[in-house]
Design a protein that fits this description.
The protein has 368 residues and is of the alpha/beta class. The chain contains twelve helices and 18 strands.
């Protein structure tokens, strides 16, 4: 029998969350973001779960090609663009859109003859200061792209730094939109501005955003970029991580648990050992009190998470036994809550799921 740890991917939840994104931005086309192996869910499952998207967006050129091999015929967008001259022919051959965010990428396109026209997304740096041309450089970059015979459509693009917090004191969405509008003035092309935060706040920002394309990522997987909870936005978890109790220890007052003996039993208690550790992707720094669910009852982590195991308080669980079912995140326990307790974000937990963890597909509520 395999180890009882299993991640269940809920394709029905992925479909539901994509529908929520469309409902938030009904006039826009949707790039479903499937970078980082579809946020740890698996590229093929991402393709199936987001089959109704208008396109798929990711980082890795090799995975863009893999999507074509898997049968995806709709648009694909490389969010960081190309990395080498050898990538340019692949854009034309496989009908892949490329982001263009620097002069070096423009040069690669200028120096390579394209036998078939391609579409690009020209990125503007409106304050996040990762990728893109500054607003006062943007028109010149656009002009150079427009002069390349093989360039067909140019989509105007930026990325929000703080879309989860609309009135951020240092850089608001409104300020970034203002910079974008100024830098793109007079330039023709569709517009792509909103990530998950922008999509979820689309109703508030409707007059400002004018998205032709949106690029939801974390919201499609049942998480939020911050602020309100996923449930508040009507999103459903797409990954449920479950395991079982594999041993039970009966403690008396003063007994300690785990490496470093960080947790000391305040009195008689039962502790359950769960088959899951940081080598599986569970956060090593999850503190005492991080929530878990055992046999449908909410309890918490005690002691330090180790490589292959973790320990949980069984005091609230009647008739706990070896084989009791444990939910570590997902159905009934938001991944963002576990992440927050551990000083990280749900994105990281999803993406950190280890290759040794069994993965299967199942509808929400049927992970078993």
């Amino acid at each position: 029998m395999p180890r009882p740890l299993c991640a269940t991917i809920h394709l029905d939840s992925m479909q539901h969350n994509l529908a929520r994104a469309r409902a938030c931005a009904p006039e826009a086309k949707v790039w479903a973001v499937v970078k980082a192996n579809a946020y740890g869910h698996g590229l093929e499952r991402g393709m199936k779960g987001f089959a109704q998207a208008d396109g798929l967006a990711l980082i890795e050129t090799e995975n863009a090609l893999r999507l074509r091999e898997l049968g995806w015929i709709k648009p694909i967008l490389l969010l960081e663009g190309i990395f080498d001259a050898s990538d340019v022919p692949l854009l034309a051959e496989h009908n892949i859109n490329s982001t263009v965010h620097c002069v070096e990428q423009i040069k690669l396109l200028e120096y390579t003859q394209l036998y078939r026209p391609i579409d690009v997304h020209l990125k503007m740096n409106t304050g996040m200061n990762r990728l893109g041309f500054k607003p006062d450089e943007y028109a010149a970059a656009y002009k150079r792209l427009r002069a390349i015979p093989g360039i067909r459509n140019i989509t105007l693009m930026t990325h929000f730094a703080n879309a989860d917090e609309l009135e951020h004191p240092r850089l608001s969405v409104a300020e970034q939109v203002e910079r974008f509008v100024g830098g793109a003035q007079g330039l023709e092309g569709e517009r792509s501005l909103s990530n998950s935060g922008g999509v979820l706040h689309q109703a508030v920002l409707q007059a400002e955003l004018q998205n032709d394309w949106v690029r939801p990522g974390i919201m499609l997987y049942g998480g939020t970029p911050g602020g309100r909870t996923a449930q508040d936005f009507g999103l459903r978890p797409t990954m449920t991580l479950t395991s079982e109790i594999i041993a039970i220890q009966n403690l008396v007052a003063g007994d300690t648990v785990g490496y470093g003996s960080r947790f000391e039993a305040p009195g008689p208690m039962q502790v359950g050992v769960v088959a899951c550790g940081y080598a599986d992707g569970y956060p090593r720094h999850a503190p005492h009190g991080t929530p878990v669910i055992v046999d449908g009852v909410r309890t918490s982590v005690v002691g330090r998470v180790s490589m292959d195991m973790m320990t949980v308080d069984l005091t609230p669980i009647r008739n706990a036994r070896v084989g009791s079912q444990v939910t570590l995140w997902g159905d009934g326990l938001p991944i963002d809550e576990v992440a927050s307790m551990s000083g990280t974000i749900g994105y990281e937990l999803m993406c950190a799921l280890a290759p040794r963890v069994r993965v299967r597909e199942g509808r929400l509520g049927t992970h078993g």
